[in-house]
Automatic annotation (TrEMBL):
Keywords: Calcium, Metal-binding, Repeat. This is EF-hand domain-containing protein. It comes from the Eukaryota. Residues 122-157 form the EF-hand domain. Residues 13-34 are annotated as: Disordered. CDD domains: EFh. Pfam families: EF-hand_8. It comes from Rotaria sordida. Signal peptide: none annotated. One of its GO terms (molecular function) is calcium ion binding. The lineage of its organism: Eukaryota, Metazoa, Spiralia, Gnathifera, Rotifera.
């Protein structure tokens, strides 16, 4: 599961890949959306320098001239990262974790806030972001059904569509879900709370190595 999260970070670097660049301009149906915060406010909020923010904004506008990314556009971009898999479900989960205002668009502020958390945030902040990715309905806990859906979406990412032996895959997903519930549900509540999730991850050397790779994989 952690490998899929690491790969997800490539979505934030999509403008560095020439084949994903867009030549489109904003149309009347997609009016230009400009940042609501001043560059000074963004510097205070994100701990990025003025030059870094300007660079991020230029690359964001290059691919999204309207100043915002729709869910459909996000899914389309994400599909290029996993061309042999089925990306829709996982990319929608990731989209919702960036679109914290629940507006069905990703604005520059949403993107740069996520960048800041993953680069400048503490290990607890970054683990919290991953917990929120698993917490599909954003109610502060991860249920078994949510975990199953997330794991299933990751299997769809990495396995070629049309080549799945359905029954063994479902059994494997069920088994992996049970394993993680057992590990993360420290107090045996029947669900996973953020505090227990973070506590488990901080004590797991494999996860900590993956978190360091996640941070180092983000390039400005």
């Amino acid at each position: 599961m952690w490998q899929a999260v690491e790969s997800s970070i490539q979505t934030f670097n999509k403008n560095r890949q020439p084949n994903l660049s867009s030549k489109k301009t904003a149309s009347p149906s997609h009016p230009i959306s400009r940042p609501t915060c001043s560059i000074t406010d963004l510097m205070k909020k994100t701990n990025f320098s003025k030059e870094e923010i300007r660079h991020l904004y230029r690359t964001f506008k290059q691919d999204s001239p309207s100043g915002q990314v729709s869910k459909e556009r996000f899914v389309s971009i994400f599909t290029t990262l996993f061309p042999t898999g089925e990306c829709y479900r996982y990319s929608v989960f990731l989209f919702k974790n960036i679109d914290r205002s629940n507006t069905n668009i990703i604005r520059f502020e949403d993107l740069i806030t996520t960048y800041s958390l993953l680069i400048h945030g503490s290990i607890e902040d970054r683990l919290g972001w991953i917990f929120d990715l698993y917490d599909i309905n954003k109610d502060g806990i991860i249920t078994r059904m949510e975990l199953f859906q997330l794991i299933a979406s990751i299997f769809q990412l990495i396995l070629p569509v049309g080549k799945l032996n359905y029954t063994p895959i479902i059994n494997t997903i069920e088994q992996r879900t049970d394993e993680l519930i057992h590990a993360w549900d420290i107090h045996e509540n029947g669900f996973i709370c953020k505090e227990d999730f973070i506590q488990y991850c901080l004590q797991n050397e494999t996860i900590m190595r993956s978190m360091n790779k996640l941070k180092s994989g983000i390039c400005l």
